[in-house]
Amino acid sequence: MKIIDIGANLTDPVFRGKYRGKQAHEDDMVYILDRARSAGVVGMMVTGGSLHESKKAIELCSQQQGQLFATVGCHPTRSSEVDHYPEGADAYFAALRNLIDSNKDKVVAVGECGLDYDRLHFSGKESQNKYFLRHFELTETTGLPLFLHNRNTGGDFARIIKENRTRFSNGVVHSFTGTAAELRELLDLELYIGINGCSLKTEENLEVAKLIPVDRLMIETDCPYCEIRPTHASSKLLNPAGSGEEWEAPETKRKERWSSECMVKGRNEPCTIRSVLQVMAKLHNTSEEKLAVHIFENTCNVFFSNIEHSF
């Protein structure tokens, strides 16, 4: 089984054992990556949410040859950073472009970019819309697909995509939590849909997830966030512990009781993408193996068709 996690925030300090500025345990990135490989994860896209994070993502990818790849962009909630960039917005996006051009063997998408009206206290609508549009210049000039974010935008996101659809080849709307109507609109725009634990919280989420065509589906963890929790509607679809299935989620412990063999409680990590796969396979009434093949092909076709890899 081969799986690619299209959204992993591996530059977050928690993956180095640091929580809210304090070192709670040793850097355990090597164990995290080992658990991912054991779960069938052959590749991960490390999300760049700002110029600084994009640089960090590329640095991390350079340390892990063949397994990690990066996205480069500015998350909508970080749009205000562009306004305050000392050299101005043009220089900020020129720096993003330089990162892409200088690391063509590692950068597989422009983003994370889009709109997020749930968290306007970080960046206002005007700033988000203005800099979302600048990402179309990046995708147009580099030929890279888009890694997209959309939260409670009242149609603005779909409208902007529609108006600029001829400027980019492909894209995925990651961490999708929308309605059936919103799903149809995005599918009509020939976009792919990324599903993680946050996409599968409610019964309505599950009904919508069933509607995603297999040839438009990708999966992710969005770690360290978006794990499937016991309170989520999807948790009842997970294989029970001791069921004899090929993969079971590792034991978790609180960070104060850290162990290299265990996941940290409340810190999602890439190996749990198998839980997302389990749920989606049940929703689509197919085997995990068959669904994984389709998802792997989708992901490779969109993000890895023009880049050397060893999957």
TrEMBL record:
Belongs to the metallo-dependent hydrolases superfamily. TatD-type hydrolase family. Keywords: Hydrolase, Metal-binding, Nuclease. Transmembrane segments: none annotated. Signal peptide: none annotated. PANTHER family: DEOXYRIBONUCLEASE TATDN1, TATD FAMILY DEOXYRIBONUCLEASE. Pfam families: TatD_DNase. The lineage of its organism: Eukaryota, Fungi, Fungi incertae sedis, Zoopagomycota, Kickxellomycotina. Gene3D superfamilies: Metal-dependent hydrolases (3.20.20.140). This is Uncharacterized protein.
